[in-house]
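Q: What does the assembly look like in three dimensions?
Context provided by user:
Components: two
Sequences:
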Amino acid sequence: MKRTKLSFFVVLIVFSMIFYGIFFMKEANAMMGQENKKAIVIAAFGTSYPSALKAITNIKKQVEEKFPGINVKVAFTSNIIRNIWHGRQKDKTFLNQYKWIPKEILYVKGPLATIADLQDEGYRTIIVQPAHIYAGEEYTDLNSYINGLNMIKTIKEKYMPFVKLVIGRPALGVPGPIHDYHEDLEAAARAVSNDVAYAKKNRAALVYMGHGNEYYSTGIYIEFQETMRKMYHGVNIYVGTVEGFPSLDDVLTSLKKDKVKKVVLKPFMVVAGDHAHNDMAGSGDDSWKNTFKRAGIRVIPVIKGLGENYKWNEIYIEHIKDAAKDNGIKL
Amino acid sequence: MKNLAKALFVTVLIILVLSGAKAQADYVLTDLGGRRIIITHPYKRIISLYGAHTENLFSLGLSDKIIGVSRNEAFPPEVLRKPVFSYHDDPEKFIGMRPDLVLIRPMIDRGYKPFVKKLEVAGITIVSLQPKSVTEMYNYWRDLGRLTGREKQAEEMIKEFNRRINEIKKIVATIPKEKRKKVYFEAIHRRMKTFSPKSIAILALETAGGINVARDAVAVKGTNIAFYGKEKILSHAAEIDVYLAQRGAMNHITIAKIKQEAGYGIIKAVRNNQIYIIDEKIVSRPTLRLADGIYEIGRILYPEKFNDVTNLLNIKKLNHAQYAEMFVKLFNIPIKTPDYYHDIKKRSGRVHKYGDFRDISYRGNVYKFAETMAYRGLLYNPDKYHFYPKRYITRKEVAYSFFVIKDLPEVKDFKIKDVPETYSVYEQIKTVVGLGIMKLDRNGLFNPDGNVSGRELFEMVKKVKKLMLD
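A: Here is the predicted structure of the complete assembly.
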């Protein structure tokens, strides 16, 4: 009897030790080092058009396929567009009609909240890849967010929110010696070979309508135009912007000078949204299409965003790889 | 002497009675804020804080009595030159301008009480008006007339409006009842609201021969807007021939957005591409332009009836004004209405802006067609300030317009004797000749500066349309 009692206590003590041991070890683990999982955030302006959404979901899909096992999130920088999607969360008829729209888009957040959520879930190595064209206003702002978060310095090293939070460069690159932006321009020009071929097939010139910006020099667009011209022969190529240089007027002047009679007109933007529908192909006298037609130039508008071209999205994948390599992140 | 005194007494008495009678003739107006305004003299320094009031004051010929208007007003174009005021401003800004009348509407009365009170304390007469039906609209115009001493002009406005409505009714009367189209008229897309069945907008729709499918809509208290909801709209899906939406400050809408609205795929009008957008300012505002709005709805619903050009067919040489009317009607191009002030400002200073034409009147009909042509880029070599309404239209101008309005197919190169390849509209002329839309004369000449008759234009447009259908 005594022996049984004793052995019972021994067993109890052993079990408790094992139990507490596991428990304490886990606690200690958690306190000593936080989890460190890896994630990629694709930051885009966003679009409210379900038809244009595939440009963005395509990028995500391609990135996921390229980096299996890594959590890939989409963030929209536009407040208005996020609100539109949030408003559709409970709209049954909408959801029925657009069953394919991922939940992630309906609940899409801005880059700050997306990064914070990931951090909360133990993702402390994050690459933010902008789905932007060039390092203009939007990219600069996003970069500023990332820099701000990287300013956080906790008293104890182990409580630092991020192990690595880094940003990839936009399609046409960034200034600086690390990645020569001329090479980015060439890669971008190579990615749009299909557009050149389409123009050629139609015996038309190719006109790209970029977004541009009033506050930045948009010379990169004209440099891209020259890169295209050097790469492709037999097709006249023009790049203009909605805001900034070269303007619609500049493009028209060149078209007239070159006696162009027909153009394929396509947005040089990731998503074919409002700008493509209105500024580019609208019926107003000041739309790009109407302006060309008034000069006796036929127009074949193509309302497709660059994100619908898988070759274009591979540029972003390369830039994610570069960001990882430059910062010693293994993907 | 006694007689003289008696005569004097009688005279004084008569004068007194007469002046008393005059005092009685002072009109007492009760506004929507419950104010009793005794009108003893016409008001002469008026600030209007509602676009419809302003437009009506202009229609009454009071341009020089208007010293301030609300933000975003754009019609008539003269309004762009008036100082802008808002109920968000400091009341001192108003008081400093010494207005004797500030015209508001109930929304301002309800939402900005302290502001209104301060103006009243400063001795400024405030009148709050906003009619909700057409009968009320007539009385409202009369009230504006009484306030400004323009009673006669107010009656003329009513007559003019009635004359135009009767013209429309005559057209509608020719459409058999069973061919009348059923319409859902959207007021606010986001909230799935329509107009209340007694509103001005629905009256506009019904006058134009449309049948409102949302007759059971319940008005939001005190407004012309009515709740409806998607389920109810969809319950009429199979019968909605035309989906009409107003566009304005409350409803930023596009055809694409309506098409993409979930569930709308089952609406007959959506399936058949019968979605139309109309400017809020011409369908729900109590101004003379409401008649334009009704006509536009008519053009949307029954284009073949409302785009009749019979009276222009026998004109030997069309001038610009006649050409614009015929072109806009034959291609059923929606009439361009002025945008809001900031949209007009946004346009480049080098190009024509709504209201810029100095050689046409912004009353009547010509300006509507002229501005529509200008804003669609259909005018050859456009001049910022001149439409040249009396100038004859030339063949090259017609070729130019056809090329812009439609995506005409390419044609092979060929020579035209009097149109060298270096000619500014060579491509356009070559295209219309190559496609058989316009013909060369016996000598192989195009005559780019030749004139065009009504009948000729009609036949050309017929060819263009047929070509685009094939």
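Follow-up: The longest strand of chain B covers residues 182-188.
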